[in-house]
Amino acid sequence: MVYHIAICDDNKADIQYIQKLLQQWGETNHLVLKIECFPSAEAFLFCYAEDKTFDILLLDVEMGQMNGVELAHKIREGNDTIQIVFVTGYTDYLADGYDVAALHYLVKPVENKKFFTVLERARNMLLRQEQKIQLSVLGETVQVPLYEIKYIEVRGNYVTIHAKEDFTVKSTLGEIEKRLDSSFFRTGRTYILNLGFIRRVSKIQVELSGGEIIPLPRGAYKALNQAIICKT
Questions:
Q1: 95-126 burial string, b = 16+ CB within 10 Å, else e?
Q2: How far apart are CA 75 and CA 211, in angstroms?
Q3: Residues in contact with 81: Cβ distance below 8 Å, sequence separation at least 6, in sequence order
């Protein structure tokens, strides 16, 4: 597999440094990388209009007329699979990273070890996008990518999988849980959450990136936070 990676930054020295780290990561892991560099958000969008095969976008925040957050929003309008990593000297936009489902927010100067860890997470996410759960819905077989599932809830003898569409099947939560991976966390008897969609956690509820509010059972707060920390 060839990993198509974009670096978008208006600082030439930073682009060269990130490109060097990418090459080190690729050589160490025997990966084939196609790296393209862009000095502005507008330059990337011009290329992206013709070629949407990018797997990873390493994105600065403060750039020219269009900043990185604005670019990420435009990309996310039609692409939820590209792994977006903010690489910037500013921390003011940290909360915006959740809104565009950014994989991580790296602060310059970037440490090699941390950068390589984030790249591995991005690669794992890309591999995970190929994983699907198969459901039988109204006599038809439906395959739902795991990364699209926001959360799962049970009501009586039926389980609803909330993804781009909602799918309800006759099953138990336990049976569905066995078919998921470590990116999911069961909060209790009623819900299983995709850790990647969690925006905020309090001791009584969880807010997902789409605005959904999920009640959190007593005693689940600490374990859920630990799961989130281990994921990141």
A1: ebbbebbbbbbbeeebeeeebbebbebbbebb
A2: 20
A3: 126, 129, 147
Short-list 48, 56, 64, 116, CA closest to 86: 56
Cβ 101 vs Cβ 76: under 8 Å: yes
Q: Nearest-CA neighbor of 59 among 21, 104, 95, 25?
A: 104
Give the pTM.
0.65
How far is 60 from 67, CA to CA, in rounded Å?
8
Angstrom distance (rounded) from CA 193 to CA 41: 33
Six-digit token string for 149: 């599932």
* CA gap 22, 111 in Å, rounded: 12
pLDDT tens track, the chain, 232 positions? 899 999 999 999 999 999 999 999 999 999 999 999 999 999 999 999 999 999 999 999 888 889 898 999 999 998 988 999 999 886 665 556 667 878 888 888 899 999 999 999 999 888 878 788 999 888 889 999 998 899 999 999 999 999 999 999 999 999 999 999 888 999 999 999 999 899 999 999 999 988 999 999 988 999 999 998 876 5
